[in-house]
Amino acid sequence: MHIWRAIGDGILRYQFVLVFKMQDIDNIPWEAVAYVKSSWKRTEVLKHLAQQPQAASEISSKVDLNTHTISVAIGQMREASKMGENHDIVRCLTPDRSNFRIYGLTEDGEKVVRQLGEYDGT
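Above: the chain's sequence. Below: its structure in token form.
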């Protein structure tokens, strides 16, 4: 009888996790995930912004991309929502500065990063 309960509990726990994941799937901005994954540069930039808010030059010093390329990737992720795309995933935290602007993730950006982490196995 105890063995059956242990197996039954295991099955119930597994089903609960599966149902939870299926319900959570609707809360993921899939268009934004696809948009980021379509460019390895955007993916790399987003993963660095997930660690902490940073300037483009700070990210550039950690990856094999120049500051201009990083800035373009950030701009693409900021401007996409203004072009009718629903990809509001990065925002400027210091908009009044003309240089060394600090960028961070929006709530959707954090969801995208979590999803990218699941694909990478992290």
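The first helix runs from residue 2 to 24.
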